[in-house]
Amino acid sequence: MTNGNPPDLTYSEPDLRALPPDDPDAREDPRPERPSAGGRTILLLGLALLAAGAGWYLWSTWFAPAPAPVIAETAPATPPPDAPAAAAEPEIQYPIDSSATTEPMPELANSDEPLGLGLATAMESDAIARYMVSQDFARRFVITVDNLARKTYSQRLSPFKPAPGAFAVAGTGDRMTISAQNPARYTPLVRVFEAVNSEKLVALYVRFYPLFQEAYREQGYPNAYFNDRLVQVLDMMIATREMPGQLALTQPKVLYEFADPALEALPAGQKILLRIGPENAARVKSKLREIRALVAQEVNVVKGTAKAP
Q1: pLDDT of 288-298, one tens digit each?
Q2: 249 membership: H or E segment, kind and range
Q3: Disulfide: which of 14, 46, 225, 269 matches 148 by Cβ 3.0-4.6 Å?
Q4: SS3 298
């Protein structure tokens, strides 16, 4: 039966937080719940650890002294077992003894006059004026000796003036050769060289050897010995093979070259001997052997005698 009003069809979700008031366990205690004894202990311990951590952070950040820098100790470097020892100065093969002279040694820049006077005792003065360049003679001599064993030779830096006349050739194109008349250009100079007193020339060289050694060091050889280089170059010149006949030439640019690549690849000193002709070359090599025998010995400057080392 209804009372005449329409039925309420709305649905409401029951509130699960509310229990019937007649349930004695659902009554709320107005007093706050107190933690147990074990809970209080854990809480106090957590607060203590938190306070200790905060204190340590503040002390380490603001009050603790900065740590001392750590210096890594490294053992002294030692070369590996197979490392070569430090390069030592090469052993002198052909020593020159200039210590016996009592005369003062001129400076290299002021040595032209005493060297010129010494040359005049070993060769004719007229030949010196005709064929020699006296200015900066010591440096020119050292540079020329060193260059004779290399591929190129600088006439501009030579202590000898160019041979008179022009280089003579025969033929043209692929048949170009050294002219048979060309060696005659060099014959007067070869005769002057043969007439040089070898003992006086070497005595002069030994007397002023410190100047030649200084000039050699200037060229970039601080640990090398010039007399060893001189003997080496003399041996190279003496070993030049004989090439009879007119050698074939080519002219790729301005200068003439040997058509045979093996001859063109020879050191400059050997190519000079080939250009002057076999007869002149034989006479020059004979004189070079004589000089080589003297400079390869230890020379006593005061007595003027040579003795084997």
Answers
A1: 999 999 999 85
A2: strand 249-250
A3: 269
A4: strand
